[in-house]
């Protein structure tokens, strides 16, 4: 990993900038950063898909360059009616609220919608990259290895994680049966943070919450540990900067388009940094981004999430490295520093 955050998202090299790319979740956090990244690399023939009626998300997408905007529920009708060739689908749209316990909502948006997308890409021979989640790993009893053998045994802690794992299981089974897009990857996102998450409220990153708490009262509240094997604030997560996430996706997309992604590479991939860090480290980096001394207060964890809380996550990144991705990831200090200084201080968007 590197201590120097990369502020310029542009990558060098030859690209098929004429490609028509669908990006779902394009008004959301990671999706809008993905669209900005593509724009900065010369891609403008983009089909943005999301629920665009949510006013809080408008600043995420209104300045982006694209050729079409399609409401989420209209996408498959739009695809049936269009004569445009679609070159790649980047499916990042999902219901990501881990405190939403109505599984029917997750089933509709995270499972069935993704099945429809998979089936379309398989029928039309279109490469597909989709968002899974580290929430599929549950409490981590079986580790954090992105192999296909373990997914049937995973026990996610909430309906969101269950829905993501159900689709992963279905996708792997479909692929084994020979019904799959020509190239595909399911990315198990770990704790992604960065600009354009301002609309997420309770589900925004701890950095976003810490920054706002510091502005309000000069201190940050962190959850106490409710397990004897973890000290307060020393719960560990694999925090990954969104700028690193979109680079990985672009690399996969380019590999799939230029013939560098053979069928043997299809499958599930972890997307973290491979290094777990404590919440204290995270908050200290946030204070450092504001040139302030840390002031942390510990509070009890809400009971509604206490028995569904991950105390440790750390992505095994070897599979992605073996697939050919060689770029370093930002350290926690570099990524948080860039986010705080470059975006949060001025409430700037990527």
From TrEMBL:
Pathway: Nucleotide-sugar biosynthesis; ADP-L-glycero-beta-D-manno-heptose biosynthesis; ADP-L-glycero-beta-D-manno-heptose from D-glycero-beta-D-manno-heptose 7-phosphate: step 4/4. One of its GO terms (molecular function) is ADP-glyceromanno-heptose 6-epimerase activity. It is an enzyme of class 5 (isomerase). Its EC number is 5.1.3.20. Residues 21-260 form the NAD-dependent epimerase/dehydratase domain. Its cofactor is NADP(+). NADP(+) binds at residues 29-30, 50-51, 57, 72, 92-96, 164, 192, 200. The keyword Metal-binding does not apply. InterPro entries: Epimerase_deHydtase, Heptose_epim, NAD(P)-bd_dom_sf. Keywords: Carbohydrate metabolism, Isomerase, NADP. It catalyses: ADP-D-glycero-beta-D-manno-heptose = ADP-L-glycero-beta-D-manno-heptose. The active site is at residues 160, 200. Binds 1 NADP(+) per subunit. Belongs to the NAD(P)-dependent epimerase/dehydratase family. HldD subfamily. Contains a large N-terminal NADP-binding domain, and a smaller C-terminal substrate-binding domain. Homopentamer. Catalyzes the interconversion between ADP-D-glycero-beta-D-manno-heptose and ADP-L-glycero-beta-D-manno-heptose via an epimerization at carbon 6 of the heptose. This is ADP-L-glycero-D-manno-heptose-6-epimerase. It comes from Sediminibacterium roseum. The lineage of its organism: Bacteria, Pseudomonadati, Bacteroidota, Chitinophagia, Chitinophagales.
